């Protein structure tokens, strides 16, 4: 039932929806019908309305607010059940908030219903509003004393509804960004390139210093580009951008037709012409959007397949659509004053970033001297070549905001050979003079809210630096050389951050394997997840240059890298306005491609100095020849290798591991001392410890301290986007994945799912790239049971039903839904992903950490007798058999990547077909059976009530308060 109340003289409305959900004893079809109906009511409510959903949902949402951030508060009750999961999925999809969970109240004011048998109180009645209306709700609580002929406590919610006036956005000062979309027109591009060639040929850079050469080069390129491409005064960041010129031509055509009708309003022919033109424009606009979404979905899927998460999330934001931006009030540095004036807000941002980016730090001279000296690699000093510059230009990301020179990456990519040659000449001048122009050093800083904490506090925002693209090309050329040098064994194998053929999945897989090995071999595992305070901004530059020389970087290479940092100035940019410039004297250069690698050099130096004499960690033995399923091969005396797993690194994310509390404390002490020596500081509030006891061993909270302060002990930790639990189960991770996938699905509802004119095939592509990739992120590392896969598959098929327009009344089975969408089931996708990952690990070098752990075991500890808990190897073996791949020699087959992928593809098709056939046979058998209720029912001996199962009768007999009754009697 829905009630629509007028607000604000009938211009605004509040829609109140009253709901009663079926209990968990009802068939799934009944529950699905309820949520289908609820989704229909919600979708039909205008987005501008205040929406309040209240009722008895017979669902327990639990208290896991971290997985359902934005949907639940910190004050939930109990654990989540199946109905609660459905309710939370609906809430996150529509951007709702369960208001019962956001207020700190006594337990009696939170719960609404007492279970008749257990006598435990639960929360199953809710008041739900849109997340944006959170400030309207003053309190939601249960009324303990109300007697209204119900076994539920009444829920009261006090609200003060605020009507925000429609404000006209302030126009930002238009920046003279180039209209890059015109480069897609062959005639415009060719004219631009020809003119640029002529003008570049007329200038000479050889006799100029680096600064003058850059000024001449920049002015020539920009003036030519602005002349032929024109300025772009508005940026939609969606399909409008790429079709801007075509849209303008279509609108001009409509204007002419409208003007013709305006001049002769009685002409029927001109009316028909205008109607036809409008219809044609609408059709073409829909086709443009469909084509853009289809291409973007394919691009996004490629990023997901290659585990390129940076570009994946960047593309995902484009599909979600543009977001509103603008300035908001800020707190002063001491937090006592709220700043509202725009000029003062900009000054406050400049003050904040100036303090963050100039925090002094020093690296101990003795620590640097202790580092071993690597012979200098003189090849790093060679003058850059044309091939290196061309490679660096190809590696540029398109669509990124330029620096202060306003020359985007697309100009360098499409500008032709003459532009590349002249840029090479400029870079060679920089190289010879060891002087970098100021524009190539400077940064324009914009800020993004972290979506955590008070929005008015500067610390809850993240700064993003916009750098000159020419400077990025120079930095990329330096990085390509440096990476080749560092891959000669100078970085530890435990560091996977920003390195070729390595990623977050490597470290997540290693962490999960450590957990499994310790569980399997009855060993304790202590893990400390270190959080550093603004690690990249705390790097001592003087110390970094000395460490680079210790790592074999010659003088000129180090000097050019240093020149990109020394004398750097930054400005905060907001709504087209810039603050006063301030110097940046410490830390690596934010936004520069060199920054993560330079930090890794310093971090690796710190860890090698700290742990060079330490033997703490988890000792393992491994052997990469033979079958991974044959543990007897590890009993050999000569072919087995040994290693100690101490730290897992991804850039500044560090996880220390040990087998005992004493060893863990020792490692943490060493790490803390090393941070003091190298100018870094540990955030003790965010650094956490997780203790995983051996099976059947009682849990005791670990006591690990840093500088006398005890670290927080946790039962689970979000490591590189994946949840690690001390219980070594995937329940928490799956709940988090479902929450994120539901949120992704909900954000695309307006722009994609409900948008007319977008083909069904395109919607499926977007779903596969944006939603399915979010749902299954990191699935190649999972060890899951059938119940987990069923839960994921239920979300998969339910989402597809919504996309394809299937209703519960249609009685369409899941197999037909998957056939219509041309997508496999989650069972097949999981097996496929894990086999592809296993093949990738098998092809790794023997010194890679994931391969050591997959093909090895702990040196100490033994397996328990009897049945074992499911391991990753068991999941892998089952997938191999299901895909008709021989488990005995799969490692050899995986060495040929192309053939391995083909074998997986064929196996997936066979497995999916067999699953569909089995499901159809089961369905036919179920329809053919017709068992009358009386023959399958069990009678209560006291009240003659009928039960389908004995467990129901057992529970029912407790209500008679008689001695136990024999079921066989």
UniProtKB/TrEMBL annotation:
Listed SUPFAM superfamilies: DNA/RNA polymerases, DNase I-like
Domain of life (superkingdom): Eukaryota
Keywords of this entry: Metal-binding, Zinc, Zinc-finger
Molecular functions per Gene Ontology: catalytic activity; zinc ion binding
Listed Pfam families: RVT_1
Domain C2H2-type per the UniProt entry, residue ranges: 938-960
Annotated CDD domains: RT_nLTR_like
Domain Reverse transcriptase, chain residue ranges per copy: 429-724
Presence of the UniProt keyword Zinc in the record: yes
PANTHER family on file: REVERSE TRANSCRIPTASE DOMAIN-CONTAINING PROTEIN
Name recorded for this polypeptide: C2H2-type domain-containing protein
Organism: Leptobrachium leishanense (Leishan spiny toad)
């Amino acid at each position: 039932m829905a009630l629509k109340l007028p607000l604000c003289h009938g211009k605004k409305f509040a829609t109140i929806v009253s709901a009663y959900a079926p209990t968990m004893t009802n068939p799934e079809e009944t529950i699905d019908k309820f949520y289908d109906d609820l989704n229909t009511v919600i979708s039909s409510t205008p987005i501008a309305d205040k929406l309040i959903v209240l009722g008895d949902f017979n669902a327990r949402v639990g208290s896991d607010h971290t997985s359902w951030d934005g949907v639940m508060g910190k004050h939930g009750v109990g654990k989540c059940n199946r109905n609660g999961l459905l309710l939370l999925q609906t809430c996150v999809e529509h951007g709702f908030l369960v208001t019962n969970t956001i207020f700190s109240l006594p337990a009696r004011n939170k719960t609404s219903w007492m279970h008749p048998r257990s006598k435990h109180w639960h929360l199953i009645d809710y008041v739900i509003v849109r997340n944006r209306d959170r400030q309207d709700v003053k309190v939601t609580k249960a009324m303990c004393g109300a007697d209204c002929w119900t076994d539920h406590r009444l829920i009261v919610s006090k609200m003060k509804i605020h009507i925000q006036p429609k404000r006209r956005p302030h126009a930002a000062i238009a920046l003279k960004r180039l209209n890059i979309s015109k480069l897609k027109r062959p005639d415009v591009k060719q004219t631009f390139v020809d003119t640029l060639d002529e003008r570049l040929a007329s200038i000479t850079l050889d006799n100029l210093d680096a600064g003058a050469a850059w000024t001449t080069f920049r002015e020539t390129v920009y003036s030519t580009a602005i002349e032929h491409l024109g300025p772009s005064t508005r940026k939609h960041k969606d399909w409008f951008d790429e079709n801007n010129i075509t849209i303008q031509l279509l609108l001009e055509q409509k204007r002419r037709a409208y003007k013709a009708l305006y001049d002769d309003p009685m002409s029927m022919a001109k009316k028909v012409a205008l109607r036809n033109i409008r219809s044609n424009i609408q059709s073409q606009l829909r086709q443009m959007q469909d084509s853009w979404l289809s291409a973007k979905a394919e691009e996004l899927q490629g990023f997901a397949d290659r585990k390129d998460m940076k570009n994946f999330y960047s593309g995902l934001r484009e599909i979600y659509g543009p977001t509103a931006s603008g300035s908001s009030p800020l707190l002063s540095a001491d937090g006592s004053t709220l700043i509202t004036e725009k000029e003062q807000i900009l000054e406050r941002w400049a003050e904040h970033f100036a303090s963050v980016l100039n925090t002094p730090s020093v690296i101990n001279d003795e620590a640097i001297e202790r580092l071993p000296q690597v012979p200098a690699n003189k090849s790093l000093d060679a003058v850059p070549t044309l091939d290196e510059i061309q490679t660096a230009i190809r590696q540029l990301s398109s669509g990124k905001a330029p620096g202060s020179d306003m020359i985007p990456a697309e100009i360098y990519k499409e500008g032709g050979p003459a532009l590349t040659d002249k840029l090479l000449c400029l870079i060679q001048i920089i190289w010879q003079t060891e002087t970098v122009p100021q524009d190539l050093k400077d940064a324009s800083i914009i800020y993004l809210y972290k979506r955590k904490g008070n929005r008015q506090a500067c610390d809850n925002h993240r700064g993003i630096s916009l750098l000159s693209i020419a400077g990025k090309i120079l930095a990329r050329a330096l990085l390509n050389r440096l990476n080749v040098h560092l891959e000669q064994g100078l970085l530890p194998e435990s560091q996977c951050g920003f390195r070729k053929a390595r990623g977050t999945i490597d470290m997540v897989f290693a962490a999960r394997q450590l957990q499994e090995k310790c569980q399997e071999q009855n060993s304790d595992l202590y893990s400390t997840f270190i959080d550093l305070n603004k690690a990249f901004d705390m790097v001592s530059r003087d110390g970094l240059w000395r460490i680079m020389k210790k790592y074999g970087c010659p003088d000129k290479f180090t000097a050019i890298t240093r020149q990109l940092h020394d004398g750097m100035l930054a400005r905060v940019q907001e709504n087209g306005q810039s603050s006063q410039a301030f110097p940046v004297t410490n830390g690596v250069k934010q936004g520069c491609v060199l920054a993560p690698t330079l930090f890794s050099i310093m971090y690796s130096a710190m860890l090698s100095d700290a742990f060079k004499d330490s033997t703490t960690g988890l000792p393992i033995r491994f052997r990469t020849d033979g079958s991974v399923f044959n543990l007897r091969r590890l009993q050999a005396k000569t072919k087995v290798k040994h290693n100690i797993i101490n730290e897992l690194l991804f850039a500044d994310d560090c996880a220390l591991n040990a087998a005992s509390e004493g060893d863990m404390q020792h490692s943490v002490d060493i790490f803390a001392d090393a941070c003091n020596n190298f100018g870094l500081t540990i955030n003790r509030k965010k650094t956490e410890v997780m203790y995983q006891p051996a099976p059947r061993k009682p849990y005791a909270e670990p006591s690990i301290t840093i500088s006398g302060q005890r670290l927080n002990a946790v039962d689970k930790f979000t490591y590189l986007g994946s949840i690690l639990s001390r219980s070594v189960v995937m329940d928490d991770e799956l709940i988090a994945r479902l929450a994120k996938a539901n949120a992704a699905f909900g954000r695309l509802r307006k722009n994609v799912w409900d948008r007319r004119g977008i083909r069904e095939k395109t919607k499926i592509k977007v779903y596969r790239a944006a939603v399915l990739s979010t749902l299954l992120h990191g699935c190649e590392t999972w060890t899951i049971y059938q119940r987990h896969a069923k839960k994921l598959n239920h979300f998969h098929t339910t989402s597809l039903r919504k996309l394809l327009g299937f209703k519960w009344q249609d009685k369409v089975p899941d197999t037909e839904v998957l056939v219509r969408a041309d997508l496999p089931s989650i069972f097949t996708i999981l097996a496929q992903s894990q086999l592809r990952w296993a093949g990738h690990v098998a092809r790794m070098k023997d010194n890679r950490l994931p391969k050591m752990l997959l093909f090895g075991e702990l040196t100490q500890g033994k397996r328990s007798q009897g049945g074992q808990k499911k391991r990753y190897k068991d999941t892998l073996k089952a997938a191999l058999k299901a895909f008709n791949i021989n488990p005995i020699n799969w490692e050899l087959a995986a060495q040929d990547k192309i053939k391995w992928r083909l074998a997986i593809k064929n196996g997936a098709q066979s497995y999916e077909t067999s699953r569909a056939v089995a499901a159809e046979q089961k369905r036919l058998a179920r329809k053919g059976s017709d068992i009358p209720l009386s023959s399958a029912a069990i009678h209560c001996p006291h009240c003659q009530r009928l039960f389908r199962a004995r467990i129901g009768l057992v529970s029912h007999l407790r209500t008679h308060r008689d001695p136990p009754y024999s079921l066989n009697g």
